[in-house]
Structures are given as structure tokens and as C-alpha cells.
Amino acid sequence: MENEKILKLAIIEAAKGLGLELVENDVVIEHSKDPAHGDYATNVALKNAKRLGKNPREVAQYLSDNIKNEHIEKIEIAGPGFINFFLTQEKLTGIVERVINEGDAFGKGSPKGKKINVEFVSANPTGDLHLGHTRIAAVGDSICNLYEAAGYDVCREYYVNDCGNQIEHLGTSLRARYHEAFGEPLVLGEDDYHGRDLIALAEQIKEKYGDKYLVDNEESAAFFKRFGIDAELAKIRADMDAFRVRFDKFSYESDIRKGGTIESTLEFLKPHTYVQEGATYLKTSDFLDDKDRPIVKSNGQYTYFMPDICYHYDKMSRGFDELIDVLGADHHGYINRMKSALMMKGYSADSLAVELVQIVRVFKDGEEVRMSKRTGKSITHRELVEDVGIDAVRYFFVERSASAHLDFNFNLATEQSSQNPVYYAQYAHARCCSLLNLADDIALDPKATALKEESEMQILKHLAEFPSMIEGAATSRAPYKVAAYIQKLAGLIHEFYASCRIIDRNNIEVTSSRLALVKACKIVIKNGLRLLGVSAPEKM
RNA sequence: GCGCCUGUAGCUCAACUGGAUAGAGUAUCAGACUACGAAUCUGAGGGUUAGGGGUUCGAGUCCCUUCAGGCGCGCCA
């Protein structure tokens, strides 16, 4: 059982003697920063003193007198009424054996029996992914990993907008490039795509189909759209694959629009609509929105919002307990709009959570880089990953909370040096591996009974926090907490290494305990990095 | 104008969702390898948490207000 849980249950039990009925969520167990404050602390006495009409220290005194648990070495009351717990040596070292036994599975929470759908990236298949997508991919995938680790059932989903205006432009642009490939002058409209990447696609078409599509008719127009979508989506999928992001499902707007779904949904929503100047508005302001939103234009076309509503209804109908959309921060106006639409269908406002990811700026040599030297356009996802490497990009892009603007330091990320946090963590892992290799003839002692140094105790406590860290990072959808955890652990490992002689063939008892600790560290660093999609090399 | 977000060390960010002396990294300075990887470690300086008021045992965190910045407010997606 987790240390926190043991303490909570003991506190709840003792509180009954005061006539206080508590549940686990009422009790906050803190990890003491200062070793003088014990291993864990709680503020229950302060929290509940008023309700009981007693002095906080009195309450603390009663609780500390009545908490009995074999794993608690000592209890102290401090300050205004904090209760500090000191655990037994045996309980603290117990984590080593647990980590080694559970291995890759250490940190995994018990199954929650809940299905969660996380939609992210969902870039329009009209061109290359940019850095905003990179961050959304890194954050979204890590959130999924966290939910899975915490015991949820997760579906990673990508919504393909393969209809609408941009797709029309993709088709006409590709057609223009195709004509260009036959020596005709290039004719592109203002809203068409001027990127040079379509040239290669046009060449492919020419090679495969010859001049078959030079005639402008409905068939060729449809062909260019289809070919463009398929090719662009294939590129995106390849980029995401290479970035270690795999989607379980691709949903297509064109499928949503099939089979009269939109019409029947429109019919269902009718009580919540009105017509003004020929356009149909949805009364989202009856729910959470600050104004109503058009869903059908006066020319009869649907706005983007209409199929989006159907898509979200579709997701809910697939039996998910919660939907999560990971979006760029400029979409915040979208949140209450979609929640309102879900509420019209009887879903709760909480059935959808939107995680907003702030923009990314790249800095090189102290200056902001906007354009790629190679193409003259904005730096693409692919270019950044090629230049910097997957591990560094994935790590840096989740290192800060998603709501914070990210300034990506290009020099630091490519530097294989002490200042680079990715290498700092990976180096800690490699160090553990090399220690275990050097002493592979010495048996480990999973009970780790000989551990007693301060640097060892610090690691033990930190290792014990891993499962609850995952739980917290998952529910707050905050992968940056994993990165922070890893940095701390890596630091503790390096510190331990510097202050303790680990392999000492004249003292096998201590050595075998320390090696077991090293093994546990190695496992947890690796498990942590895996949550972020970052590799844990054995050698560097 | 209205709404949402943000403001913490020179810089980039934390602070367990209201807890104990606000912490890391980086930068700067000073130290540590003839023992397991120096991609490492040890130490120092650096703060009126944008300003002001309030709530309480206790506020960076909650409420009000002022200031500064970002983003939204389309029959675009």
C-alpha cells in the first residue's frame, strides 16, 4: 500500500474518536520538504479545529496519541498544529523491492473502468505540420500515456477535416502544380497554397497518370482533392509515427457528413435554434456561451461548427466517459460553444475537457527564429525533429505546463552537455546501467536493509511518490509534472553517486543494498521517460 | 468596449490546488577527478510573488481594484 494511503487510513481511524467522520479526500498528506519535519505531514488538525471548537494543537495531540501503526516510527506536532510522521526504516526501504518486482509496471494504477477519448493534432491535411502541432502532439500523447498508466482506457483520435474550403483550395492548388509540371504557367489564387511541397505531388501524379487529368471537369477536380488529402495525410501520419505518436482512430469529416447525420442532428437541435437573416443560429447562450453561433449559413451551407457538433455527439455515443480535446490556445472561445452543444444533448458540461496548449517560439543564438533557412517558410515539425532529435523535442515540449508560452532554446536542446535536461536524465539512467553491468556478479539485496545515508533516504521517499505523481499528473493532465519528477530523481541519483561509494567489494552487504537501489532508480527513470515518449539509453 | 488567460530571482519556469524559512534549472562567481562515466558533484550571491485593499490561525494561491501583456469576440475553420 502507498505510504500516503497508510497514513490517511490511520488518521481517519483516529479522527473517529473525536467524532470526526473523514473520507480519504478530506485528508491531505504532504511530502515534507525539510527532513526535520519528518517524511510526511498533514494539516488535518488545522483544517478541522474550528469545526470541533478546539485548539488545533489539542486536536493534533489527540490524533497523534491515537494513531497506531506498525510502519510509523514517530509522530511529532509542530508549528500551529501540523502533524509530522516519521516512517520506519523498513517501510522506507520496502519501496526498492516493490519497484524491482513490478519493473515496467511500477507506477501503474489499478484499472479505473473508465474510457477516455483524447483528440489531438487533427491538423487539416493541406500541408506540413508546424510547431504548434508538435507541442500538441507531445502534450497530447503524454497525457494519453499518463491516463493509461493511471488505469484508464484511452483512445487516441485524430479528426480529419477532409471537407470544406481549404480542401477545395488544396485541390485547385494541386491541379495548378500539375499543369505547371506540363510546362504551363502557374496559376494560383490568393487563398490557394503556395507552398512548394505540392510540386513533388504533382510530379507523382504526372508519372503515374500521365496527362489524364489535364482536362478540367468534376472528375478531375475530385481526383485532385482525394489525391491531395491522401498524400498529405500520409505525410502527417509518417511524421507522427516517427515522433512516436500513434493514433488508434482517424475520424473523417466526410463520414460524419454521410448518411443524413447532420440533418437529423439539425432536426434534434431545432428547439434550440432560430433563423436570422437567412442563417440558422444555435442558442448556445442559453447554456455556457456568451453569444449564439450560426450553424447553417444563409446560402444553405453548414458552418464548421455543425459537423463538429455531430462529431462530438458521435464520440460520446461510442461510450466514452470523458472527451478531451487538445487544442491551440487561440481556440479558447470554442470551449463553451461545444460544451453548450453537448449539454443540449443531455451530456454534462464536464463530459468534455479542453486542454489548451500555448504557442511555441524558437530561439537560436538568442534570437527568435520564425523562418526556415531551407524553405523560407515557417519551420516545420519535420525540420525541427530532424535537427534536434525526437527525445529532446518531446522532452522540451512537455517540460513546462501547457498553459505557459514555450520558448524553445534551439542551442540548448541540441547541446549534448551538462545544461541539457534531457541528457541529465538520460545520463542518470545510463549511469545506473553501467554500475549494474560493472557489478553483475554481485547479488542484489531487494530488501536494501543496509541503506541509511541521507542521500539514500531521499531517493527512497522520491521513488515512493512515483505512483501518486502519475495519478496527480493524469487527473490534472499535466505531463510537465513527470518531467519535474524525473529531473528531481536524476539529481538525487547523481548526488547519491557522488557522495556514496556504490560498488565496494570489501563491503558486499552495503554494495548489494545500494545496487538494488540503483536498479530501482533505473526502472523508475525509464518508466518516467517512457511516459513522455523519451528513450532511456543504456549507454550514451 | 466585453470575455478568457497570464504577471514569481537577470532569463525559463515550479510551488502537491489555502500550509511551515517561496524552490529548481540557466546565467554569474568560487571549489571538487591517480576509486564505480566530470554529460557529474559541492558552495555563494540573486525576491516587497506587478501595485494596493480584503477574507483567516495562515495568501504566490481565494475576493475586489489599478497597471502591464497575450488571445478571443466572423454566415473563417
Task: Describe the overall structure.
- This protein is of the alpha/beta class and 540 residues long.
- The chain is 49% helix and 14% strand.
- The chain has helices at residues 3-15, 44-52, 56-66, 89-102, 131-149, 165-181, 197-209, 218-242, 253-256, 261-269, 305-317, 332-344, 381-388, 390-398, 410-414, 421-438, 454-475, 480-499, 508-531; strands spanning 29-31, 40-42, 72-78, 82-87, 115-119, 153-160, 249-252, 273-276, 279-282, 293-296, 322-328, 352-357, 360-364, 367-369, 406-409.
- Strand 13 and strand 14 (367-369) form a beta hairpin.
- The longest helix is centred in the middle third of the chain and has 25 residues, at 218-242.
- The mean pLDDT is 90.
What are the salient characteristics of this protein?
Gyrase A, domain 2; Isoleucyl-tRNA Synthetase, Domain 1; Rossmann fold; 4 domains; 49% helix; globular; RNA-binding
Distance between the termini: 36 Å
Taking strands numbered 1, 2, ... along the chain, how are they ordered across the largest sheet? Answer: 7-6-5-11-12
CATH fold name of the largest domain, please? Rossmann fold
Total number of distinct structural domains: 4
- The CATH class name of the largest domain reads Alpha Beta
